[in-house]
Amino acid sequence: MGIALGLMLAAGLLTANAAAQGELRFCLRTDPKTFDPLLAAEEASETVRYLTGGVLIRFNRKTQGLEPELADSWKLQDGGRRIDFLLRSGIHFSDGTPFDAEDVLATFRRISDPAFASAIADEFRSAGEGIKFSSSGRYGVSITFPQPLAGVEFLFDRLSFSSSRSAQKEKAVLGPFYVTEYKAGQHVLLRRNTYYWKKDRQSARLPYLDSIRLEIQSNRENELLRYRRGELDFIDKLDPELFERLRKDMPTSVVDAGPSLDSEFLWFNQAASAPIEEYKRAWFQSQRFRRAISAAIQRSDMVRLVYRGYGRPAGGPVSPSNHVWANARVQPHGYDLQEARRLLQQDGFRWEGETLRDKQGNAVEFSLITNAGSKTRSQLGALLQQDLKKLGIRVNFTPLEFQSLIERITKSQKYEACLLGFTNMDLDPNGQMNVWMSSSTHHAWNPGQNTPATAWEAEIDGLMKTQATAANPRARKLAFDRVQAIVSEQAPILYLVHPNVLVAVSGSVRNAAPSALAPHLYWNIEHLRLTDDRRTGREH
Amino acid sequence: MRAIRLLAIVFLLATAAISLAADWLAPHDYAEQFRDHAGEPPSPRFPAGTDELGRDRASRLLHACRTSLLLALGTASLAISLAAIIGGVAGFRGGWVDSALSSLMDLMLSLPWLFLLLTVRALLPLNTSPSASISATAALIGLAGWAPAARVIRANVLSVRNSAPLLYARACGLRDYRLLAVHLLPNLKPVLRAQFWIFVPVFLLTEANLGLLGLGILEPMPSLGSMLAELQNYDRIPSAPWMLTPAFLLLGIVTSLHLAMAEAKTWE
Question: Cβ B233–A241 below 8 Å, yes or no?
Answer without folding.
Answer: yes
